[in-house]
Write a structure and sequence with these properties.
It contains six helices and no strands. The protein is mainly alpha-helical. It has one domain. Helix 3 packs antiparallel against helix 4, helix 3 runs antiparallel to helix 6 and helix 4 packs antiparallel against helix 5. It starts with a helix and ends in a 7-residue tail after the last helix.
């Protein structure tokens, strides 16, 4: 392992901890609502480890999380089938839409599972999906572009 690789890994981990730390603080130490979802942890891998990836670009992160969460909510509220049918169907539709719309963000593929298994309210689309993703992207742009001096977004 060379020094550049080690530094990249340490910076990705450090900036991931900062971003998730802010979302955690907002979720648990303020009255503003929920800002954190499990799939944001995977988003950190792409955003800070591989920001040059098409999957790490802002439109993919934002719309990937949004579309898959909307699919999960739609299935949860409007498709009265057993869980063992709804979960794979929602993930499949979410993945299909991300690919068709050219907004693929692999971590978002888990959002329908989170939405359906958590039986979330429709407010979930606003907080944490939209607001949390915007915060993630603000940190991603600031840390990648202004601190690491990377060309992000591409």
């Amino acid at each position: 392992m060379n020094n550049a690789h080690l530094i990249k890994a340490l910076l990705a981990g450090f900036f991931s901890a900062i971003t998730i730390g802010v979302l955690t603080f907002l979720t648990y130490k303020t009255e503003f609502g929920i800002f954190l979802i499990a799939s944001f942890g995977s988003t950190m891998v792409l955003l800070y480890g591989y920001p040059e990836s098409p999957f790490a670009q802002p439109k993919n992160i934002f719309f990937g999380h949004l579309i898959t969460s909307l699919v999960g909510a739609f299935v949860l509220y409007f498709i009265p089938l057993p869980l063992y049918i709804n979960l794979p169907m929602a993930v499949g539709v979410g993945v299909t839409l991300m690919i068709l719309l050219n907004i693929t963000h692999p971590p978002a593929g888990g959002n329908p599972i989170i939405v359906i298994m958590g039986s979330v309210s429709l407010d979930y689309i606003i907080n944490p999906i939209i607001s949390g993703t915007i915060i993630v992207l603000i940190f991603g742009v600031v840390l990648n572009r202004f601190i690491l001096k990377k060309k992000y977004p591409l």
